[in-house]
Design goal:
The chain is mainly beta and 71 residues long. Helices cover 6% and strands 54% of the residues. The longest helix has 4 residues.
C-alpha cells in the first residue's frame, strides 16, 4: 500500500507485514470476505485496498468496507 505495507490474505484472516512486523488485521472484516477465497489484493493511488474474491470485489477505505458484486 502507500505506506509500504504488504497485505496478505490467509485462511479466514488478513495479515499486514509492516516495518518488519506481521500483524493480524482485525477491523470489521466482512463475513463474506473471510469465508471466501481471495484471489488478489491491490492498493490504489487513493490509498484504498481492494480484495478480489469469488463473490465480487471488496474495498477498504478509511476503515469502511464496500462490497461490489454482479447484481
Amino acid at each position: 500500500d502507500l505506506s509500504g505495507a504488504v497485505w496478505i490474505c490467509a485462511q479466514d484472516k488478513i495479515l499486514i507485514y509492516r516495518h518488519g512486523n506481521l500483524e493480524i488485521f482485525k477491523d470489521n472484516i466482512p463475513a463474506q470476505l473471510s469465508s471466501n477465497f481471495v484471489h488478489a489484493v491491490q492498493s490504489d493511488r487513493a490509498g484504498r485496498i481492494w480484495f478480489s474474491t469469488n463473490v465480487g470485489l471488496f474495498r477498504l477505505e478509511n476503515g469502511e468496507w464496500t462490497h461490489f458484486n454482479k447484481s
